[in-house]
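Check this:
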Amino acid sequence: MDPDVEIGLPPRSGDGIEVLLSEFAVWLDERRGLSSVTVVNYVKQVRKFLRLLVGASGGGTVDAVVTGLDGVQVTRFMVGYCQDRNVWSAKAMVTALRAFFRFAHASGRTSVLLTGAVPAVASWRGAVLPKSLSAEMVERLLFDGTDSATVTGRRDRAILMLMARLGLRSAEVTALELSDIDWRAGVLTIRGKGDRLGCGYRCPSNLVPRSQLG
């Protein structure tokens, strides 16, 4: 399998990096049984890694560079590569490099298996959520994201308004009881920890009126 042909590029004859990548592609195909799409993606990622290392070596051959690799170089590359890249791009490089280092070790190019030197990429749930919503986005969420024709929709809109207009936390909204609402004065009493009464909040003037709560 020629990785350049697979991704629609002309083969680079005499390029040591491409010769090595061709061997890597064959190994992935024959030894690991990976799909052609996965092989192409791995080759593209590893090409970036090898070209950067060879370029920084000051004229060294790709074989010499790979043979001389150590964990410090690998970790340094990943730290630099992950700057200003999203989680999925970083994970793609991690997966491809780990496969390449297995290949390099299996083919005798490295005496030490370097997969452990490739750091994992943290991807906490919600890590890519925006830090805040614009006023326009909040309005769309309140009025387009809830259905005022249903009791559930009106309840959801009231909850969202309390959080958006008064800055209440979800736990504070959940703890609200009807007795905490002074309908005449338009004031909410918020409960603190241990069910202690906290401060009062003036209700938003356009909060869903009592008559609509069902």
About this structure: The longest helix spans residues 36-56.
